[in-house]
Automatic annotation (TrEMBL):
Domain Peptidase S9 prolyl oligopeptidase catalytic: 179-359
InterPro entries per the UniProt record, alphabetical: AB_hydrolase_Est10, AB_hydrolase_fold, Peptidase_S9_cat
Signal peptide stretch: 1-33
Keywords assigned: Signal
PANTHER family given in the database record: ESTERASE ESTD
GO molecular function: carboxylic ester hydrolase activity; serine-type peptidase activity
Entry superkingdom: Bacteria
Any Pfam family hit: Peptidase_S9
Protein name, UniProt field: Prolyl oligopeptidase family protein
Length: 377
């Protein structure tokens, strides 16, 4: 029987923080809203007001097996047709007999930010990252499923984790909160029609931006019974950047006047984003304006408040991508709204990948994943 990749390979693809150390220069060019439609580009649409976003239920969806050259034997690929005619690709952790051979609950894993494939080739071999780890450790209990991001091919994508500079136009046009949650709805609707999927337990699990998407899916699909957010449960990402900037500049010894001058520059960047909220040509921190404007309109806190699922939240106290203060805000929001089905775990001295200074082998993220899945009993 083929075995899953070892943990060492899974660790290689631990998601790096969204917020890269230096601000990437914006790329000049017309916004997507200003350019003329190109052949085959009919799937792209300007963002609509957040209150008008609708996630329709899909029925009669087919899971089409896909043969992908180089895909590890322990994984199976399936395609699901989107309403616009394009195809969403999912990977399922299977065994020698294939996928969906026994009836089990569902675990939907959501990656963090960036235009990278679920799979990546390293000198040591092919890695399925955290999806491979989840499959190796938890496919005895769950059908472990991950969605390849739209606009990213198997083993494709950009070089740097968490970044989308140089990504395909299709990726930039659809790497929005609405786009990723919409794909989650499509996949969930298709899988819940499968007779080998136990609907009584559906876990949406995500790290970093993936946690935001898991929370969003739980907010719009009551079929999600459990949602676990690792290092991704915060307020608005824009506000988190301001928090991090203030903290860093004060640590560097700048005066409060100097700090405010730099903060105002950041707000100028936000105004530029909102002046061209649909642009896929202008970048900020390695991501298109369209992506930033989308995530600026909906927060994990709002999604979790709306979710009917039981909630698990985990956060490192020294996270440099999602400040612990932002995480605390979410916990307070849920507490003051009377939610009693919330499990909260803080990891002292842990960073965005749940690694601590003495965690030489970077096992923190793996232990955090195990804890989250173990919570879903």
């Amino acid at each position: 029987m083929p075995s899953c990749p070892p943990r060492a390979l899974a660790r290689l693809a631990v998601v790096l923080p969204l917020f890269v150390p230096a601000l990437l220069a914006s790329c000049a060019g017309p916004s997507a809203a200003e350019r003329e439609a190109e052949p085959g580009d009919s799937a792209w649409r300007p963002l609509v007001p957040i209150e008008e976003v609708r996630f329709e239920h899909h029925t009669g969806l087919d899971l089409e097996p896909i043969e992908i050259d180089g895909l590890p034997a322990w994984a199976r690929a399936f395609g699901i047709e989107r309403p616009d005619g394009s195809r969403a690709v999912i990977y399922v952790s299977g065994d020698a007999d294939g996928a969906f051979t026994t009836r089990k609950p569902l675990l939907l894993w959501f990656q963090g930010s960036g235009a990278q494939s679920v799979f990546k080739r390293y000198p040591q071999g092919l890695s399925g990252g955290l999806f491979a780890y989840l499959g190796a450790e938890h496919s005895d209990r769950f059908h472990v499923v991950v969605i390849e991001k739209r606009g990213v091919e198997f083993l494709g994508g950009t070089e740097h984790s968490g970044n989308a500079e140089g990504a395909s136009r299709e990726f930039h046009e659809h790497s929005t909160w609405e786009g990723r949650v919409g794909d989650g709805c499509l996949v969930l609707d298709a899988l819940l029609e499968h007779p080998m999927v136990d609907r009584s337990c559906v876990l949406a699990l995500g790290h970093s931006e993936g946690g935001d998407i898991a929370a969003g899916l739980a907010a719009v699909r009551d079929e999600v019974t459990h949602v676990a957010v690792l290092a991704g449960a915060g307020g608005c990402q824009w506000a988190e950047l301001v928090m991090l900037l203030r903290h860093d500049l004060r640590a560097e010894g700048l005066t409060e006047t100097e700090v405010e001058e730099e903060v105002q520059k950041l707000f100028d960047d936000y105004r530029a984003i909102m002046a061209k909220p649909d642009s896929v040509d202008d970048l900020f921190y390695g991501h298109a304006y369209r992506r930033w404007s989308s995530y600026g309109r909906r927060t994990p806190a709002e999604s979790l408040v709306d979710a009917q699922a039981a909630i698990y939240l985990a956060q490192g106290t020294t996270d440099r991508a999602v400040p612990i203060e932002s995480f605390d805000h979410v916990v307070v929001e849920l507490l003051r709204r009377g939610r009693t089905d919330v499990t909260v775990r803080r990891y002292p001295d842990a960073d965005h990948g749940f690694a601590t200074p003495d965690d030489v082998e970077q096992n923190g993220i793996l232990e955090a994943l195990d804890a989250a899945v173990g919570w879903c009993e």
